[in-house]
Amino acid sequence: MFTSTLRKLTALISLVFLLIFIIFTSIFYGYISYGLFDKIDEAMRLQASSFQFVNGRVQFPRPRPLFDPRIFLLMRSTDGNIVNISPFRIEENNYLAEIVARTNTNVEEPEIREYENHVYRIVTVPYRYENKLYNDEFVIREVIAVSIVDPEVGLLNNLLWIIVGGLIIGMVSIIVASYFLARRAMIPIQAAWEKQQQFVADASHELRSPITGIHSNAELMLRHPQQTIEEQSHRITTIMKESSRMTKLISSLLTLARSDADKAELQLAPLDFSEVVEAVAEHFKPLEEINKVSLTIQVKKGIELVADKERLHQLIVILLDNAFKYTPEGGQIFLSCDHDDKYALVVVQDSGCGIAAEHIPHIFDRFFRGDKARSRDKGGTGLGLAIAKWIVEKHGGKISVESPGKGTTFQVTIPLAKTRKER
Question: How far from chain centre, in Å, is Cα 260?
């Protein structure tokens, strides 16, 4: 699938580059062509329109237009006869009369004629002066300017060959560059696809375990319908436990799915963050005696935030829940909440087994667990820290972790209410 997409993307990018190249070179070629011929055409029009015949003599206005030796002037009569008025004898330039004889009349737009491997540019201008009589039988109707443009045509032909050659050579570079860009563009797409596939596989695996537990215990209960509820209580307890675990997993998956689709909106409101942290800590107090660990709390009063109270409550629960899961008996957990000029700072530190250095870059990945078997035994799904990171980032904050061999420290910073207003 990715190979086919890569090829299509390479072809599309190559086509775009090719079109850009063709458009650019067409504009460039047209600009050069216009620049080369524009001055010649203007000079031809100027000399042709300035020419007049007075008392049997050619006359130009003062100041006289700049003389261009490549421009020849001819007159055409009302009956189609042509007379060369250049300072050269008509006999030596009979080809000019032959060239202009085929031009359109009363058309001031330039025409191009080829004659004996030479290119001529022709401009016809109507004769506008009152004295139109050249001799007794020749009445001037229009003046024709003729100029040879071999150098300009040769330059344009060379430029065209250079463009075509550059296009042929450049196509190789375009294809290589397109393939490179397509590969670069495919990297995040392929990574997202692989991540999605892994996510689906992990979710299926995690859901299979509680479903299997529920199904197997329910089947065993059906095999012994004569037994009382008390006798089947251990199986009922297992079903309830696995159902609770599956409900928690589905809820976490739904939260992450909504976050990926940007549909999980925060309900922002002013709140006292200190009270949220203290409330969560109070719920975890009974676990001190149950898990035989020490929980130390230091919360500074009056930390005001504009945030989602439920999400921040969930954040602190996730961090403390992890701390209690991985702190052995006799261990210590430290929770602090403080602030500086811009940020509220939450620190959750435990004296547990710590996190291996190679696992730290991945602990916020979905379904990642350093010791999967032990994590599953403790009810973990590997989604808590991914949700915690999403909550922190949605509030414009940052979350980091340190684990120097033994024990783990999570640190969270969230902008204060006044900082959010300044932004």
Answer: 19
Distance CA 206, CA 413 (A): 31
Residue type, 295: L
Whole-model pTM: value is 0.53
Residue 21 and residue 54: Cα distance in Å, rounded? Answer: 55
**CA 216/CA 380 separation, integer angstroms:** 21
How far is CA 106 from its chain centroid?
55
229 burial class (0-12, 13-18, 19+ CB within 10 angstroms)? exposed
* Length of the chain (residues): 423
Residue 196: closest CA among 185, 206, 188, 186: 188
Q: How far apart are CA 239 and CA 215, in angstroms?
A: 8
Residue 172: C-alpha distances to residues 14, 166, 240, 409 (Å) = 10, 10, 65, 54
Is the pLDDT higher at 418 or at 127? 127
Distance CA 80, CA 129 (A): 18
Of the candidates 398, 388, 347, the residue with the CA atom closest to the CA atom of residue 365: 388
Instruction: Assess whether pLDDT exceeds 60 at residue 362.
Output: yes
**DSSP code of 229?**
T
Q: Specify the pairing of strand 52-54 against strand 57-59.
A: antiparallel
**Contact yes or no for 403/354 (Cβ under 8 A):** yes
99 within 8 A of 122, measured Cβ to Cβ:
yes
Distance CA 123, CA 365 (A): 77
Instruction: Return the residue matching tokens 């002066």.
Output: 129
